[in-house]
Request: fold
Amino acid sequence: MDIAFVIEKFILVTIIFAISLLIAMYSTYAERKVAAFLQDRLGPDRAGPFGMFQPLADGLKMFMKEEIIPTNANKWLFMVGPGLAMLTACIGTAVIPWGSDVQIGDRIVPLQVTDINVGILYIFGVVSLGVYGVMIGGWASNNKYSLLSAIRAASQNISYEIAMGLSIIALLLVTNTMSLKEIVEQQHGWQWNIIYQPLGFLIFIICAFAETNRAPFDLPECETELIGGYHTEYSSMKLGFYLFAEYINMFVSAAVMATLYFGGYNYPGMDWVLLNAGPLFGPLIGTVVFFVKIFAFIFFFMWVRWTIPRFRYDQLMHLGWKVLIPLAIANVIITGVVIAIIEKF
Amino acid sequence: MEPLTSKKKVLEQKPLTLAERMYLPAIVKGLSVTISHIFKKEATIRYPEQEREFSTNFRGMHSLKRDEQGRERCTACGLCALSCPAEAITMIAAERKQEEKELYREEKYAAVYEINMLRCIFCGLCEEACPKEAIYLDGPIVPADYLRKDFIYGKDKLVEQPLNNNK
Reply:
């Protein structure tokens, strides 16, 4: 391992971290703007042109707010909760391939922090860890509503992780690899996995909504029943971390969906572009395309939030256990049978 | 409970069809409804910069009028205060001095004229009661303030600016 390798990875990690924070920041702004436009309103437009500095103002407000730790809260866990939520939200970006290899001078730089051969499992594990931030925060608050919310979050995540895992198994049958880099490379041009796995994608996106606690599955934050949910007792930047982690989660799951089902940085006509744009800018155009896909998914998340009402808790469990899991199993079986038949003939 | 009316509507509750149970067609329909609103005109405006047009009979802040020579029209007869259902108007009358002929039209004028904007209901009865056409509710919306005392508007805020053309 040479020093250039360390520097290269360090720069890449820093850039990705900065970008995911920036996108999370502007997702809060975009969420409010999208909500406004869908409801025939104007949205925030006071801070800066078109309200562009609204996230900065919100962040500043969060920092200036009084920090309150409830007397009966478990202080240590109360502080760990938001940090953990933020950490687990951020580390998911490590295995996502942001673009094909870039050539700078005679050095080939992969636009992926690490290409571990079980990339999907890693993502899956990180997503499962995400619920710990919520659970620890809800439990440490020593508040009944927070605890109820934490229980909801935990049971919801467990229920939907199964269906999500099964939908990924069907995808793995098609791709024959767990490395995200290879999965993306297989989807060259327009041969995106969505063509082979439409049902799998549908299950995956529904589960992604549930895993990120987004509407219509935002029961842990159900204001009408649980005040604020797990972050009822939180204030100041700790609350900000929780809200922020949700947007980073959204960004990461949008990136994962774009990677797994929508070809990552592949797009029709990419060979011609790669040939003409050179070894540095060709891959970067792919990265831009990838981010366009991510933004489209983030918009879809918001669009759904401002359309569909929240599920009732029993409906949520019904959908998870009695609909999605059987459907995902059927999807695995059908995929397996079709692949077996194709290989036979 | 006894039914209050004789009207009766029996709700038909059929079991959901497969398409309805899948939710997805309904969700797609809902999404198409919301996306169509992006292209519609906003119902809201950028308020302090833009203002909505008031209707022609809008009643806003009061103003005490002057006549064509720039003299105050009010003669402190007290009919506005009498007609006011909210008892928002108080005034103290005074006799016009010889040298004040340029300032007040009638021999008697209002030395103090106060309207409590927190009491006022903007009904416009003062406007109707005034025999001298001295008060009109033709101003803008009364602005917000912090203290109750600041809502008691005196002559400094109510009397309209003198015309400058006959100077």
Summary: Residues 63-158 of chain B form a domain with the Alpha-Beta Plaits fold (CATH 3.30.70.3270).
